[in-house]
Amino acid sequence: MSTDFQQARAALGVRLRELRFSAVGGRLTGTQMAERLGWPHSKVYKLENGRQTATAEDLRAWAEAVGRPATYEELHARLRGFESQIRSWRRQLAAGHRPVQDNWNIAVEQARVIHAWEEAVVPGMLQTADYARHIFLRYADLYGTARDTDEAVRARIRRQEWLYQGGRRLHALVWEAALHARVCPPSVLACQLDRLIGAVGMDTVRLGVVPLASPLKIPAANGFWILDERLVIAEDWHSESWLDDGNSVSTYLKVWRSLAQSAVFGVDAQTVISRVLCSVRPR
User: Fold this and answer.
1) Is 88-280 in CATH node 3.30.870.10?
2) Residue 78 · residue 7 · CB < 8 Å
3) How far is the C-alpha of 231 from the C-alpha of 168, rounded, in Å?
4) pLDDT at 92
5) Closest CA to 206 of 133, 117, 83, 136
6) What span, in angstroms and rounded, lies between the C-alpha atoms of 162 and 156?
7) CATH code for 3-84?
8) What's this model's pTM, rounded to 2 decimal places?
């Protein structure tokens, strides 16, 4: 969790405590507040001390419990402010994967140049439908989310229309390890690798592969996408970060360029992919 995110969550907690202290009818103790809300006392403590992220429903209940329902809008604005950068998977996937894909589609449609790095999976904009389906199923199992897999796949594949629009350019880097990863049956992976070989020749795509044996100038870490050098979307196990401050964007661009120095492109990239394909193609 980022320092900025934690500071914002702690500041929201301070504001919640202020409201409890100034409740209509007199100051409430933490125990009284918990009883009024029907919550465990520990939840009140965690929210006020920035150790748990409130939901919009929590904030509405809090505002009503202290007799100040009009403060809900202020509290919710604070929540939206810091969650616009750090978006927990638990919250994002509450309604399934389709809404997350829709948000990505909106962001991508506004971009003209994208730089992407993926160390564990094939980049989403170059995935086949079958490969994407298996990825969504794996994450649905991990997070216990709704299985709207078919809708999520359609939304992700629809994003690929961006690749066929003039004036667009995808600069994608993928670690060779991702090409070997058996996150799907071998037959599905073989079709996916065929798709990547074809993508190397697309006018709107510059695909680089970082071979396993290639010296790295920086450790391979989490995947990320840079949109028009103005927005970074980076994924971790607990959340997805949408970062638009200049320092963060510059750092991720520097990382991408460092990784690109270890990559091979064009025919050399096709050679690496073809070698992996030969090892996974069903005999």
Assistant:
1) yes
2) no
3) 16
4) 84
5) 117
6) 11
7) 1.10.260.40
8) 0.74
